[in-house]
Amino acid sequence: MLATVLYEDGDHRWIMFARDPGKPDGIIDTNQYLIQSGNEAILLDPGGIELFAPMLSSVLKYVPAEGITKLFASHQDPDIISSLGLWDQALPNAELYSPWLWESFIRHFGMNNITYKAIPDEGMTITLGRIQLQFIPAHYLHSSGNFHVWDAKAGILMSGDVGAALEEPGAPLWVDSMERHAPKMKKFHQRWMPSDAAKHDWIRRVSALDIKIMAPQHGRLFKPPHVADFLRWFEQLPVGVAIKG
């Protein structure tokens, strides 16, 4: 599992885990994130069950298991949280923050020790060490109960499936041209994002943020000016168009 430090300021840092060279064929590639502040850390969308071993090995190089006090699942999909049952054994005193809507579904992945912290529809703010993290509503993008994570101090928005692209192994980490990158995102967003109203609500929310990095769950990450380029592109993109007739 490859690890990339995205941000570091004293004991506050973001680390991305992705592009696992040992990933089984047929498994979608995902980006996992660790935020650390002081003696606490949170794992964002920690991955599928097949990634648990390389994820755990990689994460423990940066933070001890007892330092991981929180997990976050943006929604219920297996590619981001089916590893929960194994994290439940490795992190017996942690909390999982996830939409209230999906609690009874997510528990099917196994959760005997970790405490479920239901995020209300309007979102919430939590404290991690010396910083605060905001869970921003992203409902129907693509899940009916869905949230993104905003770290105002770092200027990083973990944007889940928004901004995601499915690419070949070895693709660059950063978007360098929206003109070249947009075709890689178009079909994914049109198929998986079902609501223009939800899309516009999300754009309104995040346009007010000073985003230094937009970090999706799949594919490349965005820095200015490509963050603004993406928002303009997404705003005009018709979504929910897979079924016609």
From TrEMBL:
Q: Which domain of life is it from?
A: Bacteria
| Metallo-beta-lactamase domain: residues covered | 29-218
Q: Which SMART domains match?
A: Lactamase_B
The signal peptide, as residue positions, is none
Which PANTHER family does its entry note? HYDROLASE, METALLO-BETA-LACTAMASE SUPERFAMILY, METALLO-BETA-LACTAMASE DOMAIN-CONTAINING PROTEIN
Q: What is this protein called?
A: Metallo-beta-lactamase superfamily protein
